[in-house]
Amino acid sequence: MALSEPKLGAVQCVSPAGLHTMRYAQWGDPRNPQVLLCVHGLTRVGRDFDHLARALCERYRVVCPDLVGRGRSDWLRDPSYYAVPQYVGDLTTLIARLDVEQVSWLGTSLGGMVGIGLAGLDQSPIARLVLNDVGPRLEIAALARIGNYVGVNQRFARLEQAVEYLRSIAQGFGMRTEAEWREITSSVLKRDGDEWVFHYDPKINVPMRALTAESLAAAEQMLWKLYDAIHCPTLLLRGANSDLLTAETAAEMSRRGPRAQVITIPDVGHAPMFFDSAQIAIVRDFLLSAG
Question: How far apart are CA 28 and CA 5, in angstroms?
Answer without folding.
Answer: 10
